[in-house]
Amino acid sequence: MSSASFTPRVFSGIQPSGDLHLGNYLGALKRFADAQNQGIEAVYCMVDMHAITVWQNPEDLRRSTRELCAGFIASGIDPEKSILINQSQVPEHAQLAWVFNCVARIGWMNRMTQFKDKAGKNAEKASLGLYAYPSLMAADILVYHATHVPVGEDQKQHLELTRDIAAKFNHDYGVDFFPITEPVIEGTATRVMSLRDGSKKMSKSDPSDMSRINMTDDADTIAKKIRKAKTDPEPLPDTVDALKDRPEARNLVNIYAALDNCTQADVLATYGGKQFGTFKPALADLAVARMSPITQEMARLMDDPAEIDRILALGAVRAREITTPILRQTYDIIGMVGPAV
Ligand code: TYM
């Protein structure tokens, strides 16, 4: 059983918690926008129910959800072509997640590195939701029978779990109902690293704001963060191979390549042998040229929150045309009494 017999459909989600950063843009949003004209139906989700697995101030959550929606649109995702939703307006996500809580095994959850990282030493005090998070994530994807999930590398383990849940459900009930989803982790920016430490991923939870470029940063801030980014003293090498043991240099080259839609080799063809004193200003100019129009468009969209709410409400109606029958069929397979399918 695979995803081959299912109509291709893309699903991906982003948490509306804190600011969007360059890792979210290059690892997710930009790739969604680039893939938009492939003619495959796509659903993109602001996962507000995932966000509350750790404390969220209600006003901040509301604002971050709208800002994330603005971020999707400003990055080039057209809400007419793709379906844009916030998770809580499509209740079938949570309903299917309960079913999956009964399919997934505790041993599987115990292996999830993201839970270990987020719960830290005090796992007893973590919310039950944080522990069950990957089961809701599997439901997000499978309630659409999504076949392809574009994400950054950090989500790989959760997508493997999604496949395990689909396979166990299909096996336990003797059906070929849920697709075995393909993770799509492609391109030069599937793991954008911190600007302060090339061994850590760029993340909204890093206490240092200098470690990341936020999608709301102005041009001067972007340029300053790149100028101050940690590097080694050597000039850039001529070959991609020589970047292997230079995580900070590799990260900046990867960011350049992703922003400019070219390869690492293309970047090195121009900047190989040059010092960071030359490369960093070029990267800053490129980042500002690419990010500033998006930042400005986000701000413009945020001036009209009612329009954003309207887009999300419409998205939910379209989404539920897909999710309602899939949940109903799931319940029927399980043996829950309800309307005939
Ligand atoms: P989240 O909100 O942490 O991140 C959203 C997307 O951005 C990618 N990303 C990165 N890519 C490259 N470099 C980085 N430094 C970087 N940081 C983040 C993530 O890989 C992701 O693609 N659990 C998910 C949200 C989710 C989801 C889903 C995703 C919920 N349900 C179903 C796909 C399908 C998360 O917390 O992503």
Name the poorly predicted regions. none
In the CATH hierarchy, the architecture of the largest domain is 3-Layer(aba) Sandwich
- In total, the number of strands is 5
Mean pLDDT: 96
Give the overall form. Answer: globular
The CATH H-level superfamily of the largest domain is: HUPs
The percent range for helix content is: 40-55%
Can you walk through the features of this model?
The chain is mainly alpha-helical. It folds into two domains: 3-189 and 304-334, HUPs (Rossmann fold, 3-Layer(aba) Sandwich), CATH 3.40.50; 209-300, Tyrosyl-Transfer RNA Synthetase, CATH 1.10.240.10. It has 13 helices and five strands. The strands form two sheets. It has a three-stranded parallel beta sheet. Strands 4-5 form a two-stranded parallel ribbon. The longest helix has 30 residues, at 305-334. It starts with 8 loop residues before the first strand and ends in a 7-residue tail after the last helix. The relative contact order is 0.15. The model has no long low-confidence stretch (mean pLDDT 96). The protein binds tryptophanyl-5'AMP. Tryptophanyl-5'AMP binds next to strand 1, helix 1 and helix 7.
